[in-house]
Automatic annotation (TrEMBL):
<dbReference type="InterPro" id="IPR046755">
    <property type="entry name" value="VAS1_LD"/>
</dbReference>
<dbReference type="Pfam" id="PF05827">
    <property type="entry name" value="VAS1_LD"/>
</dbReference>
<feature type="domain" description="V-type proton ATPase subunit S1 luminal">
    <location>
        <begin position="216"/>
        <end position="354"/>
    </location>
</feature>
<dbReference type="InterPro" id="IPR008388">
    <property type="entry name" value="Ac45_acc_su"/>
</dbReference>
<protein>
    <submittedName>
        <fullName>V-type proton ATPase subunit S1</fullName>
    </submittedName>
</protein>
């Protein structure tokens, strides 16, 4: 079938799928799809592993998941759930056993060629992906990427054996627990999903756009300063707090690209505009959108913009990016803001940037 789920089946980013919701999704798949079911069960896995080791930042050949990616691309119907409740994931084998009315058949690599499936009779095949406990993420014997690459090779062998049978099947990959645990420290954003801009105890509140209503962009730093020819101008008190005069009306928020524009009437005797240019891109491997601050601009008076290329300032769009220091100096490979053109005379400093 072209799809086993409705277009609204995929949960929004930051949502944790409950046991009841997962059961409904599995019900839909088994009611409308093949009853030959392959369950690939891994001890630990998180969606961040796909982002970290999936080669999404231009190094696709280095991906740890080539077989999984090819399977998802070739599947007539697929659904990726970025976050599933631990108890719900742990109950998947029991749910499938009850739904299909059969006990799972534990399949090892050396028995793959002996599989004989029947399209009219349901089968529940259970493959446990090894090397993830004791010798995997918890042990220095194997690096995480080596663990994931090894498991992907096993997945490829299993899928190849099933495809040689020429029998339709439903495949499920899940884990008993996450390899990474994200702590929700948000108290600012609606619905309190994911890791948002961290709440600070300081008296200066974050800059919010729009200034009233639901925030679409939040920005905070303990120190926000710019310098020209080593003369520094601090913008912290002009930017953060409840009684600032900074103008953000020129900002724009859109699904694919956003602009945070901060206008200051008088900084060192001239009007100053600071612009943050942000992209929002969907990555299939991690099944979520990531934002990327890629350009910072300073505009003094009517002069041409002074540009700083931003590097490595990126995170899932429902999370926040936090860094102790984001600056353009000293000029080195560690600087997250790289000056271009005539911007070498200018400097930007943001500490405890979020």
């Amino acid at each position: 079938p072209s799809s086993l789920w409705s277009p609204l089946a995929a949960p929004h980013e930051g949502h944790v799928v409950t046991e009841t919701q997962l059961a409904a999704l599995l019900d839909s798949a088994l009611n409308n799809g093949p009853h030959n079911v392959l369950l690939l069960l891994q001890d630990k896995l998180s969606v961040e592993d796909f982002t970290a080791y999936g080669g999404v930042f231009g190094n696709k050949p280095d991906s740890a998941f080539p077989n999984l990616e090819n399977a998802l691309a070739a599947a007539p119907s697929s659904l990726v759930l970025p976050s599933v409740d631990w108890f719900a994931a742990d109950a998947v084998p029991a749910f499938l056993k009850a739904k299909l009315g059969i006990a799972p058949l534990h399949v090892a690599q050396n028995t793959l060629q002996q599989l004989k499936l029947n399209a009219s009779l349901p089968a529940l095949l259970l493959v446990r992906l090894p090397y993830t406990t004791g010798t995997g993420f918890d042990s220095p014997l194997m690096a995480p990427k080596e663990v994931l690459t090894s498991n992907d090779e096993i997945l490829g062998q299993v899928l190849s054996a099933l495809q040689s049978e020429d029998i339709p099947y439903t495949a499920i990959l899940t884990a008993l627990r996450p390899s990474r645990v994200a702590r929700d420290v948000s108290d600012l954003a609606p619905e309190k999903v994911g890791r948002q801009l961290l709440q600070k105890d300081e008296t200066l509140s974050p800059l919010q756009y729009p200034k009233t209503g639901t925030p679409q962009m939040l920005f905070w730093a303990s120190n926000f300063s710019v310098a020209f020819n080593d003369t520094w101008h601090e913008l912290t008190n002009l930017t953060f707090g409840n009684n600032t005069s900074v103008n953000v009306d020129g900002s724009k928020s859109a699904p694919d690209a956003s602009l945070l524009e901060m206008k200051y009437a008088n900084v060192g005797g001239s009007p100053l505009t600071v612009r943050f240019h942000i992209r929002n891109t969907f990555y299939n491997v991690s099944a979520r959108h990531w934002f990327n601050l890629y350009l910072v601009q300073l505009i003094v008076g009517g002069r041409p913009p002074v540009n700083f290329t931003a590097t490595q300032i990126t995170a899932p769009s429902n999370y926040s990016f936090s860094c102790t220091r984001v600056s353009s100096y000293p000029a080195s490979s560690e600087a997250l803001l790289v000056p271009s053109g005539g911007s070498q005379q200018w400097k930007v400093l943001m500490t405890e940037f979020q």
